[in-house]
């Protein structure tokens, strides 16, 4: 995984700056990307300093164990995206085999093309399980007592940065998967062919790679429009249900704070103008959408209700202000992978903004 000034894979950092005035539309003092960036969020009528993530955030001694575990996973993230981006599928070989079912050479050629691709799909799926475990570790660290979510984000910026990087990866993965129908076509052909081989008692090279139980789980994973987001949403929901001793606000306030940080940086011209490349914008947009979706799955009434601590109108407006072709995938993620968008409590204005 590449690391540079922009973070993982050239990604931009979160930064921190005084933004109590940002939310009021007043001027703030000059800042640079390496400055600390404090976003003030109004919660429950009181001001709470909400940090974002410093570019050079280093783990403290208490963070190191979780940080190192998560870092091992994140080091493989860029390679997974590169493999997915270069995934071309075996569409031609499969079509030839289906059109000429009696031609054994074509059947063998299609099977030989599909088996290594299924190996890649297995790797992607197994990475989703590793990512889920990493997310749960971060949630445990960022929501534990006795500190508030805001205090956690202030104290453990390195972990908060990793949380953002996981969300950024997740949205990028799902954007690539949604535009690649070859993935499900290849896997469906693999399963059909494997089943036929079993019936005919034909030894199947590659069956040891993906047994029937694993194939069932992979099939469910790839059937999702946004499989990585679904994995993380389910993991967050499970984390909350398994930790009933933790107030749910510990989790939802952490998510809503990160959404506010992204929105403020993107909607404020003075701060937006300092972004040196579009990857900074893409990073913030993906993290914002990711935390909204997790919040919507975890919070009892979701992200779209009037009582939500996320300014959904502001977040959607930020998305709509981008070039349409650059955010359609993110808008679709809000349309189709959130839980409460179509609830009666969601305002008509918000629904119409996402139509």
Automatic annotation (TrEMBL):
Pfam families: CYRIA-B_Rac1-bd (PF07159)
InterPro entries hit by this protein: CYRI, CYRIA/CYRIB_Rac1-bd
Primary location group: membrane
Family: Belongs to the CYRI family.
Gene this protein is translated from: CYRIB
Span of domain CYRIA/CYRIB Rac1 binding: 55-351
Organism for this UniProt entry: Odocoileus virginianus
Ribonucleoprotein found in the keyword field: no
Designated name of the protein: CYFIP-related Rac1 interactor B isoform X1
Keyword line: Lipoprotein, Membrane
Subunit record text: Interacts with RAC1 (GTP-bound form preferentially).
Subcellular location, record wording: Membrane
């Amino acid at each position: 995984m590449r690391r540079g000034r922009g973070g993982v894979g050239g990604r931009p950092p979160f930064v921190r700056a005084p933004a109590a005035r940002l939310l009021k539309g007043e001027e703030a003092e000059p800042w640079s990307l390496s400055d600390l960036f404090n976003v003030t969020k109004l919660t429950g009528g009181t001001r709470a300093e909400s940090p974002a993530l410093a570019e050079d955030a280093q783990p403290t001694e208490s963070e190191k164990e979780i940080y190192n575990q998560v870092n091992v996973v994140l080091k493989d993230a860029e390679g997974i995206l590169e493999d997915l981006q270069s995934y071309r599928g075996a569409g031609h070989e499969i079509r030839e085999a289906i059109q000429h079912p009696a031609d054994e050479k074509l059947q063998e050629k299609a099977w030989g093309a599909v088996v290594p691709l299924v190996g890649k799909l297995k790797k992607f799926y197994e990475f989703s399980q590793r990512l889920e475990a990493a997310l749960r570790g971060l949630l445990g660290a960022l929501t534990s007592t006795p500190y508030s979510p805001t205090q956690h984000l202030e104290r453990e910026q390195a972990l908060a940065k990793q949380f953002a990087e996981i969300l950024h990866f997740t949205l990028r993965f799902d954007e690539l998967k949604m535009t690649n129908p070859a993935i499900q076509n290849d896997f469906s052909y693999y399963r059909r062919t494997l089943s036929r081989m079993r019936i005919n008692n034909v030894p199947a090279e590659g069956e040891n790679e993906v047994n029937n139980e694993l194939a069932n789980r992979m099939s469910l994973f790839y059937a999702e429009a946004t499989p990585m987001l679904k994995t993380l949403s389910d993991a967050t929901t499970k984390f909350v249900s398994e930790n009933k001793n933790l107030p749910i606000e510990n989790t939802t306030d952490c998510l809503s704070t990160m959404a506010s940080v992204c929105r403020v940086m993107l909607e404020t011209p003075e701060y937006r103008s300092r972004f040196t490349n579009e990857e900074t914008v893409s990073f913030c947009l993906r993290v914002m959408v990711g935390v909204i979706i997790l919040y919507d799955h975890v919070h009892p009434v979701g992200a779209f209700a009037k009582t939500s601590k996320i300014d959904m109108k502001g977040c959607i407006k930020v998305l709509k202000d981008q070039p349409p072709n650059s955010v359609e995938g993110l808008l679709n993620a809000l349309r189709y992978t959130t839980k409460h968008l179509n609830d009666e409590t969601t305002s008509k204005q918000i629904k119409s903004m996402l139509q």
